[in-house]
Write a structure and sequence with these properties.
The chain is an alpha/beta fold. The chain is 26% helix and 26% strand. Bound molecules: flavin-adenine dinucleotide. One of its GO terms (biological process) is fatty acid beta-oxidation using acyl-CoA dehydrogenase.
Amino acid sequence: MSTLVLAEHNGQQLHNDVRHAVTAAQSWGQPVHLLVLGHQSEKIAEQAATIHGVSRVLHVDAQQFAHPIAEDVSNQINSIITDYQVLIAAHSSFSRNVLPRVAALNDVAMISDVLDIQSDNRYLRAIYAGNVHTTIQSRDTRQILTVRGSKFAAAELNGQAEITTITAVAPFTKTRWISESRIESDRPALNSAKVVVSGGRSLGSAEKFDALLNPLAEKLGAALGATRAAVDAGYAPNEIQVGQTGVTVAPELYFAVGVSGAVQHTAGMKDSRIVVAINQDPDAPIFQVADYGLVADLFDAVPTLTNALS
Ligand code: FAD
């Protein structure tokens, strides 16, 4: 039996977390295969083949995977699942949409957000927005799990896996892709950025969010993040929400600007190496996870800090 990793990509390149998922996949000591689904995606399959630890890339190139929908992806995985004892993907909104469907089709448990693989069926995982860690054991014959990328090292890029082309299953006809809106940015991707500057509802408007945080992020070469309250208020796009129901980040440096530090937010950033918080309330919970805290009005502190950075 082998271990199958579902590779996520943006049509141009593989998602960074795929390399972390490959490291996790090696825990079973079995051959690791990487599944790349795309359209005109030869380059992505070639990138995948360079990941150390991958023995085979399974490449499916078909029109329906130009904009993959979860039904097509899960049906494709299900068509080959009998060859695999373990199915893994990095924890993301994409994998959280796909893997539970595969688990349901196979009548096994879906194990999400794994932080540590302790044996071939025993895992440490986060629950209650990351406030509780629990160890679970699965007796299912097939293990299906998502892993938190930041908890596993990135596999090196010195591999030479063989690429095997496989046939696409018939497209699912009841759901179809209509459109997608993406934010184009020169900034680093949020989930792989070394520095993240996040803002909260206290920024007050989309204009102030941009005017205050963009220059700081620019100087730090940082990605922008936001709380759910800031997203819900329309100050920041949904894609940059950090937290339990957003993106999980673990940068070297995380700036929380006017962020209260609700557990649902900290669930997505508390693995950051250094956390800097600016908040005018000295009792704000964000200071409990901050390495450096500044009790100040962000409208004074952020421009001062930005100007001080060369
Ligand atoms: P607030 O809670 O309003 O805090 C604003 C902070 O700014 C306060 O601490 C205040 O002291 C400070 N402040 C105000 N003015 C200034 C100023 N001038 N200068 C400096 N500081 C100032 N939230 C997430 O972020 N991510 C998630 O993924 C997420 N998922 C959720 C899932 C569920 C099921 C639920 C129920 C909630 C979720 N939330 C999530 C929401 C979360 O509970 C909080 O409501 C949210 O994080 C609060 O955002 P905030 O800190 O921007 O706003």
